[in-house]
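Retro notes (design track)

What went well: tokenization of the new backbones is finally stable.
What didn't: we kept losing track of which sequence belonged to which structure.
Fix going forward: every design gets posted as structure first, then sequence, in one message. First example under the new rule, 387 residues:
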């Protein structure tokens, strides 16, 4: 495949903040991808732009001659792309560029993106993780302290999983009498963590009774956002917990409310604390800020027996070659893969295809909102295609 032209421009994400969109023109057409933006960012994740969005765009728009010399035929040829880039753009820009190139390569071979990146039909579809009630940095009132309260339908078909998550979301909104949503489309409330967990548990029981399908609840604690270097400072129902007390608190919540999924329960450098909590609970212990889609940190987490699942945010890393390597490592080590959106999203649905191609166990996209639903609808479309 020959690239005729690369075009980069500034667009606005779902929070009306600037991000990058990149188009790749070939004989088969024009292929476009864009990168999301995170508000809750791990300290160790890659920079979204080398120096600035403006400079990344300028650099990419000046590479027409270099890209015209390339012949790209397979996924591994992204090495040649990364050689030209030579770390002169950030992770957001590299992800959008490589996603556009892969879409063009798939079209060149008459395939869907997920088909181009995998062998045969998918044997399973990821479970959608839906953010129903929000808090922390994603909510305007910064309440509650936990960042996300999640529903995870365990129905057989992906379409049904999405539908059940939506029913649970609507019921939760009615019970808390919610009037507004946060930047991920989750209900906003001033209730504290445990009151919300009681409501989530109530909703789960009612939905399971009505529909006859299992639904799980989860939380993204995002503990680094309220850790001050010594204590976890809870403001909504104030309490100050040290490391041991935080581990015991999260462990108790997991037991009391039958929480199946717990993300970032401790601050982003406490590998040993993650390991201790993992030994105290049957919940999935999920690394995000701890691991930031970085193979070195993932290996450290595995060696210390810290996590049972990993958040994969491609724009935290940029290189899709490295993202694939991370997914392969997780599969080899028995770590569940959770492909994830960001709070500032776009209409790009690349992560849906990646989650299918690279056999993710979960996909975290939110429940409502056009930029969230476009990812879910893409997987529903794929499910229909292979039936």
């Amino acid at each position: 495949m020959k690239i005729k032209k690369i075009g980069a421009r500034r667009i606005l994400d779902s929070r009306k903040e600037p991000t990058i969109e990149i188009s790749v023109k070939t004989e088969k057409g024009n292929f476009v991808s864009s990168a999301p933006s995170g508000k809750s960012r791990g300290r160790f994740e890659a920079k979204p732009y080398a120096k600035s969005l403006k400079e990344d765009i300028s650099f990419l728009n000046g590479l027409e001659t270099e890209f015209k010399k390339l012949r790209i035929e397979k996924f591994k040829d992204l090495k040649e792309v990364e050689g030209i880039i030579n770390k002169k753009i950030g992770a957001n820009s590299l992800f959008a560029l490589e996603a556009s190139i892969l879409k063009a390569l798939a079209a060149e071979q008459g395939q869907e993106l997920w088909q181009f990146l995998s062998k045969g039909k998918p044997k399973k579809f990821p479970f959608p993780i839906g953010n129903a009630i929000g808090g922390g940095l994603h909510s305007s009132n910064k309440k509650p302290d936990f960042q996300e309260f999640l529903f995870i339908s365990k129905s057989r078909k992906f379409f049904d999983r999405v539908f059940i998550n939506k029913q649970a979301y609507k019921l939760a909104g009615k019970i808390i009498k919610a009037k507004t949503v946060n930047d991920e489309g989750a209900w906003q409330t001033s209730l504290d963590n445990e009151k919300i967990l009681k409501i989530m548990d109530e909703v789960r029981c009612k939905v399971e009774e009505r529909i006859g399908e299992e639904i799980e609840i989860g939380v993204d604690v995002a503990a680094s956002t309220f850790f001050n270097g010594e204590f976890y400072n809870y403001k909504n129902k104030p309490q100050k917990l040290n490391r041991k007390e935080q581990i015991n608190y999260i462990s108790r919540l997991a037991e009391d409310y039958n929480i199946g999924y717990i993300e970032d329960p401790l601050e982003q450098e406490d590998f040993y604390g993650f390991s201790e909590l993992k030994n105290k609970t049957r919940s999935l212990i999920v690394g995000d800020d701890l691991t930031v889609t970085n193979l070195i940190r993932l290996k450290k987490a595995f060696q210390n027996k810290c996590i049972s699942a990993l958040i994969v945010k491609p724009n935290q890393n940029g290189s899709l070659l490295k993202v694939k390597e991370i997914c392969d490592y997780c599969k080899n080590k028995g770590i569940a893969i959770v492909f994830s959106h960001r709070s500032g999203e776009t209409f790009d649905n690349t992560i849906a295809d990646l989650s299918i191609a690279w056999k993710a166990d979960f996909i975290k996209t939110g429940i409502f909102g056009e930029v969230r639903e476009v990812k879910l609808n893409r997987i529903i479309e794929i499910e229909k295609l292979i039936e």
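Added context from the reviewer: Residues 127-386 form a domain with the TIM Barrel fold (CATH 3.20.20.120).
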